[in-house]
Amino acid sequence: MRQRILLTEREERNARLRGQILPIITTILGSAMVVLPIIAVSPIMPPFGLMMLLSWRLLRPELWPVWIAIPLGLADDLFSSQPIGSAVLLWTTSLLILDLVDTRLVWRDYWQDWLIAAGLIILCLAGGLLTANATGGNGNAMLIVPQIVLSILIYPVVARVCAVLDRWRLS
Amino acid sequence: MAPPRNRRSGFSRKAHFGIFATYVIAVTGALLGLLLVVTAWVDPSGHNAIRALLTDVTAPISSGMRALVRGTGDGGGAVLEYFRAGSKNAALREELVIARRKLLQSRITEYENKRLKRLLDIAETAGNAIVAARLTSSSATSSRRFAILNAGANSGVTSGQPVRAPDGLVGRVIEAGRTSARILLITDTGNVVPVLRVNDGLPAIATGTGDGAIDIRSLSAGASVFKPGDVFVTSGTGGVYPPGIPVAIAITASGDGATAYPLADPAKLDFAVVLPIYQPAVAAAPAAPESEGAP
Predict the structure, then answer these.
(1) Do the beta carbons of residue A91 and residue A75 sit within 8 Å?
(2) Which of A82, B107, B252, B273 could serve as a FRET partner for A163 with CA atoms 20 to 30 Å apart?
(3) Which range marks the domain in which residue A106 is found?
(4) A163 at the B interface (CB within 8 A)?
(5) Is residue A13 part of a domain?
(6) Residue A39: which pLDDT band, with cuts at 50, 70 and 90?
(7) Domains plus CATH for chain B?
């Protein structure tokens, strides 16, 4: 049981703000992971921004409107060195697909969440390769396979982190 | 958990329009994204300017972290080296044999080079570096290979300048912010470097494969011209990259190409040096087809 039920107005406002802002901040922080001082020789880092977006969306479908992927995708594009607009396109498409999936599935469990996220991660990474190739690159599909596998395997961890953050967000 | 069924808005016309509007915005946004990708393809300079603003902010953060992390990374590498000691020893011995042969060859080349240079009256243009700076972070999630350099237009860095390390070529500047610049690494799939083989000046083209290796293609048709151990340097053809910078060493040869690895490993670099854009002398242009083959 909570010790104190009544919050002051200020506390309540802060709590509400935290409830709104935290998912956005954590998603942008996920995108900003590329700032870490790693000079990668191959695309190996999982797209943490995308994974946070999918985790939040799968955990709390009512949290965000579909267009949230536009600003968040833009932020990701600025960090990721992908052509600007790439993640805006792919992330919005992902969320639209998720909305479609939600109208079909009555009940999602953990495994289905993982499967859906895996599908969308593959979609976004493959799409990212396409947009990168369209703007001057020449990578082949095998290049992103290790990244896809790693991302799918790491996704449950991200989802768990997201759940912990959600608990704190609503406390 | 079950998704809430509140996507169906019931009889409220206002709620109905509200949901419809979010979809309209989302689809418009997606199309806008596609449009942006298309404009990035047509005219990348505008996009680069926007991104440069952000890298100016993030480069110092990465740089600070890199200073902290370097010690730890080296420790991990040292442990790995220990496990690979046996095979590494054999490989090194093999490499030594090749290197000895190469040394002899390079001495001959050096002598010949000096003689030819005296003949052509070319002055050495060394020590003209614009700035030495750190590579701080990279595009680790993207299939393109970019790195962020911790120096920008304030230090005289502009787009197009080649970047090298003591061991060899790193890449070239593709956009410059105030205090940071984006480098297109030679391992990127969109980076093409004209190179030549060190021992005989065989011209070739080096393209990145995106996974840390470099694909070398011979310009002259003919089967299996390359051998493992071949070293490639920039030829200076077409400008941008000055001639004579080491680029890569071939590991496996196949057909009329070879897979090589860059001699300068960007992950282990302390400093990279930005050089001015190389412009071949105009007067020398007519003689180029003959002299190109000579080292």
Answers:
(1) no
(2) A82
(3) 9-170
(4) no
(5) yes
(6) confident
(7) 125-291 (2.40.10.340)
Mutation target for B interface from A27, A39, A108, A113: give the one with most B CBs within 10 A: A39
Distance CA A135, CA A110 (A): 37
Position A3 in a domain: no
- Answer yes or no: is the ipTM higher than 0.90: no
Tens digits of per-residue pLDDT, B38-52?
887 777 777 777 778
Contacts of B43 (CB under 8 A, 6+ apart): none
Instruction: Say how many CA atoms lie within 13 Å of A109 toward its Cβ.
Output: 1
B93 — alpha (psi -120 to 50), left (phi > 0) or beta?
alpha
Distances (CA, A) of B74 to B18, B70, B71: 55, 6, 5
For B103-151, what is each residue's pLDDT tens digit?
A: 878 877 887 777 776 666 544 444 578 888 888 888 888 888 899 988 8
Number of domains in chain A: 1
Whether A135 contacts chain B with CB within 8 A: yes
Q: Is residue A133 part of a domain?
A: yes
Residue A160 predicted with pLDDT over 80: yes
Determine, for residues A84 and B190 on separate chains, whether the beta-carbon distance falls below 8 Å: no
Segment of A82-86, A137-141, A149-153, B20-24 carrying the highest mean pLDDT: A149-153
Q: Which residues of B touch A99 (CB under 8 A)?
A: 7
In a domain? residue A73: yes
